[in-house]
Amino acid sequence: MEPLWKLLSLLEPAPLVLISTALFVVYASAQRALNYEKETERHRDFSETSITLDSSQALMIPIASSLTLILMFYLFSSVSNIVTAFTCVASATALTFCLTPYISSLNSHLGYADPVLARCCSYSLTRTQCILIFLSSALVILWLVSGHWMLNNLLGISICIAFVSHVRLPNIKICALLLVCLFVYDIFWVFFSERFFGANVMVSVATQQALNPVHTVANSLKLPLPGLQSISKKVELPVKLVFPKGLLGGPALGGNSGAEFMMLGLGDMAIPGMLLALVLCFDFRKSRDLGSDTKLLVTRGFKYIWHALLGYTTGLIAALAAGVLTQSPQPALLYLVPSTLGPVVFAAWIRNELKELWNGPRPVVTDKVRLMEV
After folding, report:
1. 117 domain residue, yes or no
2. Which of 290, 281, 267 is nearest to 186 (CA)?
3. How does pLDDT run across 185-216, given as a tens digit for each residue?
4. Which residue among 161, 244, 262, 336 is the one 20 to 30 A from 111 at the CA level?
5. Considering its fold, how many domains does the chain have in total?
6. Where, by residue number, does the polypeptide cross the bilayer (predicted)?
7. Which residue in the list 268, 289, 293, 367 is annotated as catalytic?
8. Is residue 186 annotated as a catalytic residue, yes or no?
9. What DSSP element (H or E) covers 337?
């Protein structure tokens, strides 16, 4: 156990930027999920664009994640190029999804037309979407060529926001089930996997670098690409946020070089982000239902989103502090699950809204669902 004064290292630039970025990501993910829900409600399109988890799917997530971890632990070198290719497609798609509302809003504000350039099945591809796909693909290629940690973070943030927007939790009951299962999952794979597999599986997978397909293909075909030697042979996959410990020229933690990084897995933002999205949508529906009744709005006090966000901040700081004091990897969900779920459930119980939050809103019946029932 390190002395308590070591906690002062959390005031260095890298930890502060990591905490700030994580807070931004979880809140932005929840806000984008709310806006996406508004869009689907406005267009009455509750189709395959999003997935609402049920209890069986919530139980399957930690099981599937465990199997994926084992696969990546033993066979990562064999499937590295496939994983990288899939990540590139997912990153470009997620980045396009994240940028679309801002560019569309700008077009609308400036009065620019956005004609449809192509149609495929029931999907239409507009000029704005084509430009964004090109821009996103260019950024992904730039990430492959440079391997820069800032591009890695940008793509990771996009994946996190897109995931939270498309994978929904219907109520706090399913949310609690998922969080508790992942709570156990994270603890096992960080603290106990070494006893069974001879190494810390979670840390090993999280820190593995994938082969860069650009370098591999160019090198195998002996293509005379300019600057081939400057293209990184391996890249960090955007499955985590990484920040150099010597960020902004500050001293590295423990006096180490700036080549070392602080890391936070996307799951440590996406999973709490799903809870924040759930309570933010609940806050929105409650405010909409109460309408102009200012008295009732005031008596509700803080919205659930602020309880969850404050809890996330507390849990993340606790996780980083534990890592500093123990000098060992920590399962972030060990701290984040109770610190986010606890305040939300307690606040709902105090307000006599726990039953409503526990069961969630009634499912929306659309024309499509009615036709399927008929």
Report:
1. yes
2. 267
3. 999 999 999 999 999 999 999 888 887 777 67
4. 161
5. 1
6. 13-30, 51-76, 82-103, 150-167, 174-192, 261-284, 304-326, 332-350
7. 268
8. yes
9. helix 332-350
